[in-house]
Amino acid sequence: MKNDKLASGPVGDMQRKRTRRNWLLSAPALVVLAAAASGPLLIVLVYSVLSAGEYGGVVWKFSTDAWFNVVFFRDIFDGTTTLADAHMKILWRSVRLSFMTTLITLTIGFPTAYVIATRPRETRSFWLFLITVPFWTNLLIRTFAILEVIRNEGLINIGLQMLGVIDKPIQMLYTDFAIMVGMTYVYLPLMVLPLYASMERLDFNLVEAAYDLYATRRKVLRRVIIPLVKPGIIAGSILVFIPSLGAFVTPRVLGGGKKMMLGNLIELQFGAGRNWPLGAALSVTLLALVMAALLIYVRSTQSHSGSVR
Amino acid sequence: MAENRGTGQEKAEHSLPAAISAQRVTKVFGDGKNKVLALDDVSLTIEENEFFTLLGPSGCGKTTLLRLIAGFDQPTSGTILLRGEEISHLPPNQRSVNTVFQNYALFPHMTVAKNISFGLEMLGKKPDVIEKTVGDMLALVKMEALRDRRTDQLSGGQQQRVALARALAPRPQVLLLDEPLSALDYKLRKEMQIELKQLQHDTGITFIFVTHDQEEALTMSDRIAVMHVGRILQVGTPRQIYNQPSERFVADFIGKSNFLSADVLAVEGRHARLKLSSGQEVGAAIPDGMTPDGSVTVVVRPEYTQIFPKSNDAGDLQGVLENIVYLGTDTHYHIRLPDASIFVTRSQNQCKVTEAFRAGQSVSVVFSPDSVQLLRC
Ligand SMILES: Nc1ncnc2c1ncn2[C@@H]1O[C@H](COP(=O)(O)OP(=O)(O)O)[C@@H](O)[C@H]1O
Ligand SMILES: [Mg+2]
Ligand 1, residues B25, B36, B60, B232: which to mutate, most atoms within 8 A of Cβ? Predict the structure, then answer.
């Protein structure tokens, strides 16, 4: 009751004015957000329930075919329906490779970030600069560089052959392994930077305190450092996992046409496949996967911080 | 100085092993132009069950010495013994020494109880032993009610107590405290000084306490080491440090002192006749191990002197009263001596007696030969 009186009084007026002004000020951002994020998303969502045009594009006729085709495969000849094996395989490969990439970048990135964060303050920016150097070249060029290293006549195979370790070149290119190496190389900085940011904020007195209280190096890492840099671990993992899941340049170059990931599959539908609704439905599937991954991350961090031991 | 060090070391060799013994420890940081000599040939013996204080201005090397004892850094040269055993090569987790950090360094992701039990868990103690010890420690520092709080929800004083309990829980042979009270406000600091001293007495653990606050050092310590630019100038009980400072820096850093330069006229046994630069002649007791000759410095504490209205039968010093500073408990008189220097005397105020002196008046000062300290220049 008191609030009502206040709201109609001069104070309430001022507050309302302020709220209105805040909305006005954030309007440009909201418009951009709506136009650039929600708009395209909405289009994709709508396209996924339309029919495919004969030469690409969509026909404005409602159809659930695209969604059906994401999961099932209908044989043209006998009309039987089976699970879309190819799609499931690609989906599984995408999730598996992205997960592995995240794990490997974390394994390599953690000590890297730790070493940088424990350098003298003056030299840290230099090391960080080195980490970001690969970003200076185009993604495609970086990927081709990896290709040069691992292809059959590449650096590694030639080197090993010259040393007499192997007779025949090891087939690395166009395998899952190649894709993983490529993605690890490309996304490593995205893991190192957030890890470094949280390690730099870490109070190293705490590390010394744990060490002083008879903790072994391993225990210091497990009981003090990892719990305290967890925000960086989570941020880095998200930053690597999500683009890995949608990657298409790296799997295209290093996986050839054979080892497709979700990104390639989607690209295929919008290009040679001429099935835009299926491409749209696959995109939405990818989005849902990413959301699910994020949700799991958030859940796991909440339950952990609730019962810190 | 050199003689003092020699005798200290010999004593340690004959008695039980000392809690900590530092022998000719030097620590150099950096190299080339950035080279810092943080500790310069420091030798020190700290006895079992002692409340020992490292006192000195900021940057004199106190933290460096503690970090060497804790094992966070290695000495550039020299050795450190813990109960007679060399520990210089051992990492911190293998020394029975715990540290209370200046900023407490409590684990922010653990509760109070978990912080305290950390060291015990790392030592692999049994759960029931840990449970009991944590309970005892919480009681010791009066924090039972807050055992399940997170440490970032505690006040400075409470964090201080948790840090103490955490470091004491594994019952180290030596506890290191790096300016643990400097972040607390004045009143809390005074309370904690008494509590810390009591805690040391109750636990029987050797405390090595670092401070730059001379009053704190005098209040709490069994013995004090006064440090200055990486060197230990003097080690002694608070009384020795205050009454028989071995160097001008010590006399100046601890309490207030007047410094008078004088020439030695005659030496009779342990007593010297001196001629002050103002022309006055005074007597002074000669401290042990000193043979005064030529010119010396006389250290006079303001409270060991008495001020009188000027009379013709001398006194030890004469001058003009320039300033009277009333401080409630006592009054400081600033006296301009004939050589233009200022001499301060201090007298305790009697009950409500009105001021007997006024500025501009000629006065004389008297002090006893036993209350002054002689220094070689
Ligand atoms: N890690 C370090 N690198 C370089 N110089 C240091 C380092 N630690 C301390 N010093 C220098 O050593 C000297 C003593 O420092 P410290 O022991 O921290 O003094 P205190 O604790 O008495 O204030 C200072 O001059 C300080 O700058
Ligand atoms: Mg210090």
Answer: B36
